Amino acid sequence: MSDTLEFAAPSLPSPASGGGKGGGSAAWGRTASALRVALGVVAFFLILELITSLGLVPAIYLPRASTVVERMAELMVDPKFLKQILATLEAWAVGLALATLISVPIGILIGTSEPAYKMSSPVIEFMRPIPSVALIPLAILLWGQGFSMKVILVAYAAAWPILFNTVYGVHDVDPIAVETARCFGLKRRSMLWRICLPSAAPLIFTGIRISASIGLIVVIGSELLASTDSGIGSYILFVSLNGGHMDSVLAGAAIAGIVGVLINWLLGLIDRRLFAWRYLGATAR
Amino acid sequence: MSPTEPSKAATSALLGALRSMAVRWGLGVGLVALWQVLAMRAGSIFFPPPTEIAKRAVELWLSGPPSRLFLSDGVFQDILPSLLRLLAGWSLAVACGIALGTAIGRSRRISELLDPSLQFLRAIPGPALVPVFILLLGTESTMRIALIAFGSIWPVLLNTIEGTRTVDPVQLDTAASFRLPRGALLWRIVLPAAMPKIFAGMRISLALAVILMVVSELVASTNGIGYRIQNAQIMFLLTDMWCGIVLLAVIGYTLNRLFLTIEDRALNWHRGARGRSAA
């Protein structure tokens, strides 16, 4: 169960400022690291451009990086493509909401009741490894190739991290807080609402964040593998099948990546806003 | 002491064991039984009863000659290639992830240089790159292994970065005052200290690798478990499809268990060391 938590930080951890290493003033250090970040981006792009323009790989297979960027710019102002992005995001959001609505109550039940925990763990252990993509064929037969199939697949894949983090969160409430609440005669219900849930909320949100990334991958994957009628994934499939426009394929994939980065960033922002008290507590301690 | 007392204790222990077993497996058995009853009553072709799935699974995979341990051709045509690709891709991801992760975790410069690119690459959904991988690497096993490796490297990489970065500074200072060479520092202090986190990342990567194995077999494929499932869907063989799904669950569960056992062995020293220092 700890695995989802170990992977809870969805951003690359940047090394702690190695005390005194490098010398110079703090301002210079910051400029230098910003420069290195910029250099990294430029180098990444240049290397890609170099590989593709030197003809190491035929251009039909791998178009120039600049061509892909050009195509991305075109796509981002193309209303038809924006509609595909919206279709993807819609299925993603509904699926994620569904997963949250299902997983949080079940997680609370499992996390607060020992028998429920023991009884459900073998079932969960067995169901969780079923890859959501393996359910695509079944989902196609049951729900067709449209919106509901995507939503259900996303909900299935996104349910697990939220479930585990909820279970862990309500299970791992500070015992002193629980005892104190009991001394004050809090009822089970208010204990749940006023102690367990607030203390588990940051972890639950982390679960939702992990699920958000997974959900996006599943949505686009299911659009691509099940050839649905709309979405980024179906766009990628369409252009790759119709003449193999690699620049469009790569541009679509890159935009999907950017959408993923944006979602992650946004959720990180919400996380820091909503649970600012948690970060305060951590530094005060 | 009368001879009944130990036997009484034995029966109560047995009862306790039975009860805990009932608690542990009760829900699972109950759900399967419920499925069986509902499926038999509804008679829907979409949800065949578990007994039928089990029967078909035996037909598909366990009906071979005794000389081959009863494994039938399906095992050698689909399951084995799938598993081999899975392991190849995962091993590649683990090797690259640890190497790259250690470099990034130990050097702030490399980290800053690579961070944006890696963030971006990580966010690209693996399935979206399937057409690219097919064009570049063809439709043979190489493509599938590369896809598995690309998609499952991230947890290992991130956890290695985190693990190698957060080595106990006292240990590092001690090593510095003993003038431990860089190589020894890496092998004897940094990597062992990062091992628990690396292992946690490896386990998540393994689960991801199973998913990517299936993804890679759903496209332009001629064998493998994912291929079989998709084929069954196209031919409307619902029971075969369910067999594949259950098989994937079994594989995922078994791999996870196996890995946990290995992890337990490999990190035994770590828990021991921590326990002693805490005592």
Brief overview:
Helix content of chain A is 78%, strand content 0%. Chain A contains 12 helices and no strands.
How is this structure best described in words?
The complex is a heterodimer of chains A (285) and B (279). Chain A is mostly helical and 285 residues long. Chain A folds into 2 domains: 24-56; 64-284, MetI-like fold (Orthogonal Bundle), CATH 1.10.3720.10. Chain A has helices at 2-6, 26-53, 65-76, 79-112, 114-127, 136-143, 147-171, 175-183, 188-225, 232-241, 246-274, 276-284. Chain A starts with a helix and ends with a helix. In chain B, helix 2 crosses helix 10, helix 3 runs antiparallel to helix 4 and helix 9 runs antiparallel to helix 10. The longest helix of chain B has 39 residues, at 4-42. The two termini of chain B are 39 Å apart.
Query: What are the segments of chain B in which pLDDT stays under 50 over at least 5 consecutive residues?
Result: none
Q: Overall 3D geometry of chain B?
A: flat
Q: What is the CATH level 1 assignment of the largest domain in chain B? A: Mainly Alpha
The number of helical segments of chain B is 11
Q: Work out the strand percent of chain B.
A: under 5%
CATH architecture identity of the largest domain in chain A: Orthogonal Bundle
Q: Give the percentage of residues in beta strands of chain A.
A: under 5%
Give the structural class of chain B.
mainly alpha
CATH topology of the largest domain in chain B: MetI-like fold
* Helix fraction of chain B by DSSP (H/I, runs of at least 4): over 70%
Please give the alpha-carbon distance between the first and last residues of chain A: 27 Å
How many domains would you count in the coordinates of chain B? 2
In N-to-C order, the SSE pattern of chain B is HHHHHHHHHHH
**Count of separate DSSP helical elements of chain A:** 12
Please render the helix and strand layout as text.
The complex is a heterodimer of chains A (285) and B (279).
Chain A: H1 2-6, H2 26-53, H3 65-76, H4 79-112, H5 114-127, H6 136-143, H7 147-171, H8 175-183, H9 188-225, H10 232-241, H11 246-274, H12 276-284
Helix pairs in contact in A: 3-11, 4-5, 4-7, 4-9, 4-10, 6-7, 7-9, 9-10, 9-11, 10-11
Chain B: H1 4-42, H2 50-61, H3 73-106, H4 108-123, H5 130-137, H6 141-165, H7 169-177, H8 182-218, H9 225-234, H10 238-266, H11 268-278
